[in-house]
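The instructor's notes for this session suggest beginning with a concrete chain rather than abstract definitions. Hand out the sequence below and ask the class to guess, before any prediction is shown, which regions might be ordered.
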Amino acid sequence: MKRVAIVILNWNGKKFLEKFLPSVVDNNIEYADIYIADNASTDDSLSFLEANYPKIHTIPLDKNYGFAEGYNRALKQIVDIEYFILLNSDIEVTPGWIEPIINFLDNNNDYVACQPKLLSYYDRTQFEYAGAAGGFLDKFGYPFCRGRIFNHVETDNGQFNDYCEIFWATGACMFVRAQEYHEIGGFDKDFFAHMEEIDLCWRFKNAGFKIGYCPTSVVYHVGGGTLPKSSSFKTYLNIRNNEVMIYKNLTSKRLIPVMLLRFCMDLVSSIKFFIDGGFKDFWAVIRAHLSFFKHFGRNKHKRKHIDQQTISCMYTKSIVFQNYFKKKNYFNQLDKKDFTANS
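After discussion, reveal the predicted structure:
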C-alpha cells in the first residue's frame, strides 16, 4: 500500500504539466503515487496525460470547482493513504523533496501539516510570494511569510534554514495528514480559491495541532499560474475570504473590534484603488464586503466555539503598521517576542 499521494489540481494547465510534471515523476519515491485531479479542463490536458503518462492516476471532475472544492472532491476518491501532498502544477520539485517532510511528520505527531522552502522559479535566489519559508498571521488577520512581507520578497541567504513551527503552510505545496484533513472537513468550498489553506491551518491550530516548515525540502514556484496578481477577481477573493476566515476562526472576545477595524482598512484600500485608477479593484473590494454580508447566515453556521484564547505563531502586532510606518520589510526585523508561543 502506498503511504503518500501527490495530488496536482489542474485546470487548463497543459503547458505547466508539460514543463513541470517530468520533475515530479523523476523525483518521486516508491511509496508515493501521483494523481492529477482535473477541474473540467477545456484544453487537451487529459489527452496529453493519457498519451504521455498512462501510469499516472487521473481524477476527472465534472466542472471547475476551484482550488478548494476541487481538492476536496479529488481527495475523497483517494483512500488508504497516510499523507497527501497538495502540489501546484506550476512547481518544479528537486531531488529529495519528499523524504525530509515525511520523516518530520512521522516523528512529530503533534504536527498535522508542513511545507518546504518555496523559491522563485524565475529567480532561484529569491523566495516566492505564495509561501516563502512559512506563513504567519498578524493580530488583524493579515498574512505574511518568513521571506515575504506584503510585496517585499527577500533573497534566500540561508537565514531561514531552520525547522520551525509556523502559522500556515502554503497550498502551493502542502504536506498534510490525510485522516486529519478529512476529519476537520477539508478546505472551505465557499472560498473557491485563495486563503483556503490559511483557513484550514487556522482550524487545525484551533483544534490543537501544529503546522511546520522544513528547509531541507526545496521547490521552485512560478506563481500566478491561474490568476495573475493584477486580477481584480483575485482582489475580490482575497478580501472576501479573509473576512470570512477571520469571522470563522477568531475568538469572540476579539471578533468585533478586529472585524470593524478590517472593514475600515479595506475601505481605505478601496479608496486608494479608486484614486489610483483601479476602478475594477475598487469595485472588487465593495463586492467582497457585499458578499460577506449576503452570506452572513451561512458563515455564522460555520463558526465554532473556540476555547483557546491564544494560539501559537500569531503575530501580536499589526504587520501593516510595522511595514508601512516603521519600514520593516524583512521578517527578521520583527521582534520574536511579539509572536505567541505555544499555549
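Then share the key points. The chain is about 35% helix and 20% strand. The CA atoms of residues 4 and 298 lie 34 Å apart.
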